[in-house]
Amino acid sequence: MTFARFTIAYWCVLVAALLPIVCAGLAKYGMMSTPRREGGYDNHNPRGWLAKQRDWRGRANAAQANTFEALPFFFAAVIIAHQLQAGQTSLDILALLFVVLRIAYIMMYVADLASARSVIWALGLLVNLAILVAGYR
Questions:
Q1: Rounded Cα distance, 65 and 69, in Å
Q2: Chain-wide mean pLDDT for the chain?
Q3: Which residue range(s) make up the domain with 22?
Q4: Residue 42 lies in a domain
């Protein structure tokens, strides 16, 4: 019996899947102990509470939504590249680069560095495209 190994690219899929949770945590940071009536986190209506957030909390929530949006393409690209037997080293490097770019994207979003955020988003898209076609022959 042979066992498939969990590649670095697959570990990157796991990390990418956790990034939206990190964004939500950022948006909620420091508000759990504040009473609801004083604007603290509302676990009875978490999406409504997040939608009302402004400044860096609102941007963290927007980064969460965008990070969720980026996941399907990244997941599919990694799976397709594996199915097409892309070179594992290059696939792992590209997947790591994508995750690093997504983390930088979140940081730029929260810090309100819109131009840098857009450049990083575009680079992430190009890396994702490179992952997708890595196994093309």
A1: 6
A2: 93
A3: 8-28+55-133
A4: no
